[in-house]
Amino acid sequence: MRKLKTIKAAKLGYIVTSLVLCGMGVLLVVWPELSAKVLCRAAGALLLVCGVIKLIGYFSRDLYRLAFQFDLAFGLLSAVMGFLLLLDAEGVIWTLHVIIGVIALADGLFKLQTAFDARRFGLERWWMIAVTALVSALFGLLLVVDPFAGAAALMTMMGLTFFAEGMLNLCVALCAVKIIQNKKEENG
């Protein structure tokens, strides 16, 4: 029963943080002149929460063991980066796009492997994970190399990256997390 609650909590956490990422992305696209310091603190808090959710997911052991397979290392990375952004927002503000870019690139590449593993498992919607993983990785790469002219374009790209990451994690949560509840757990 405890295992089932942990998986449900991880899946719900993935869904909620995915929606928050999407919302933050839309906010940055609509309002690219948002204060970089505010963005840094918000991104730090979100990365810290996402890192914790990923760690919970890793230890939950869902049925397929696909969605959370890389989340031990990735959860630790996200939590540490989030903590650093919260601790010294002004000191890392000039590298925020690189931090977000590296995280999105890495997450996209890891989730691409998850998509191919899901295909081998016979999951029909594996391609949704693959497409969103590629988009997220591409946006992450663009943030790292920073080919943009001006701060507003960079903030808009960060918004698109947050949105892509949110959609990627939402696809993974909805397509690859399988919760099976047997009768013994229901009655016991």
Can you tag this structure with a few keywords?
single chain, 188 residues, mainly alpha, disordered C terminus
Characterization of the model:
The structure is a single chain. Helix content is 81%, strand content 0%. The protein contains eight helices and no strands. The protein is globular. With 188 residues, the protein is mainly α.
Short description:
With 188 residues, this protein is mainly α. It has helices spanning 2-30, 36-60, 71-87, 89-92, 96-121, 126-145, 151-176, 183-187.
| Strands, total number | 0
Succession of helices and strands: HHHHHHHH
Beta-strand content estimate: under 5%
Helix percent band: over 70%
Rounded mean pLDDT score: 86
Number of helices: 8
- Report the biggest beta sheet as strand number plus sense, adding barrel if it closes: none
Contiguous uncertain segments of 5+ residues? 182-188
Write the layout of secondary structure elements.
Elements: H1 2-30, H2 36-60, H3 71-87, H4 89-92, H5 96-121, H6 126-145, H7 151-176, H8 183-187
